[in-house]
Specification:
Shape: globular
Distance between the termini: 52 Å
Radius of gyration: 22 Å
Number of strands: 9
CATH superfamily of the largest domain: GAF domain
Strand order of the largest sheet: 6-5-4-9-8-7
Structural class: alpha+beta
Order of helices and strands: HEHHEEHHEEEHHHEEEHH
Largest sheet: 6 strands, antiparallel
Number of helices: 10
Strand content: 15-25%
Number of domains: 2
CATH topology of the largest domain: Beta-Lactamase
């Protein structure tokens, strides 16, 4: 089929894609980034990148520090948080996480699977006095290193062949001496998750932090919408203590 889109319209599409590419790079640079660095990373002329920045600044999606560095603008952050707060799964799961954080005195998360990563959609920190984790809403971690990731993978990847396709050619990242980096060992771990009905992270993603996760069925009675976890500081809340209270976590989710 012949493309009948006018030439000026095609240029606008390319321009819009370039603006979005600049926006993504700004999001990856919380301390700011210079015009030179943006142009280098985008392999684009500085004048072209500057036009994209001008567009973003005009609508409040970008700002400048006054020292030649650009940051995400407050208007973009406002819209992002407004959208996050309005998501049905976020609204439904927030009271659950708050209750778990209060009961355990530890951080509770709700996460979904996105490719090889988990994305944290919601989080509740413990009351005052508890150790707060550095995880952030919208943050990511390798799925195979987290309890929430293994829980969701166990539902999605049920055979060895499916797991090998999911792993692909890229090696499994390891972050601690406890990390699972062997696909066959991961397959065994996922089988164990299916048998037990919950998943654990025994200091596999971060030394000193362990975690237990269970499925959250917010939108369907048979397919998890995501996973809810409680992460504990090892010296205070050992993994065995979290595992002993898995049924309690499930009851809190069911009651939410």
């Amino acid at each position: 089929m012949t493309d009948t889109t006018p030439a000026d319209k095609q240029e606008k599409v390319v321009g819009a894609e370039r603006v979005l590419a600049v926006l993504v790079l700004l999001a990856e640079q919380p301390d700011g980034v210079s015009l030179d660095d943006l142009a280098t990373q985008l392999v684009s002329p500085k004048s072209t990148v500057h036009r994209a920045l001008t567009t973003l600044r005009r609508v409040g999606f970008a700002t400048t520090t006054g020292h030649g560095h650009y940051l995400l603008g407050d208007e973009y952050l406002r819209l992002a948080f407004q959208h996050q707060e309005a998501r049905p799964d976020h609204l439904r799961v927030r009271p659950i996480l708050t209750e778990l954080a209060s009961r355990f005195g530890e951080t509770a998360h709700y996460a979904v699977l996105d490719g090889r990563s988990v994305v944290y959609r919601s989080k509740a920190d413990p009351p005052r006095g508890g150790v707060r984790l550095t995880s952030a809403i919208g943050g990511r971690n390798p799925a195979h290193l987290t309890a929430v990731g293994k829980l969701l993978l166990a539902h999605q990847v049920t055979t060895r062949e499916q797991l090998f396709r999911w792993v692909g050619a890229a090696p499994l990242e390891g972050r601690t001496p406890h990390s699972i980096t062997d696909p066959l060992r991961l397959h065994e771990a996922l089988e164990e998750v299916r048998d037990l009905g919950y998943a654990t992270d025994d200091q596999e993603n971060e030394v000193g932090i362990n975690c237990v996760a269970v499925a959250a069925y917010l939108n369907s009675p048979t397919r998890p919408s995501g996973a809810v976890s409680v992460s504990g500081v090892v010296f205070r809340t050992p993994l065995s203590g979290l595992i002993a209270r898995v049924d309690e976590i499930k009851q809190v989710i069911a009651g939410g």
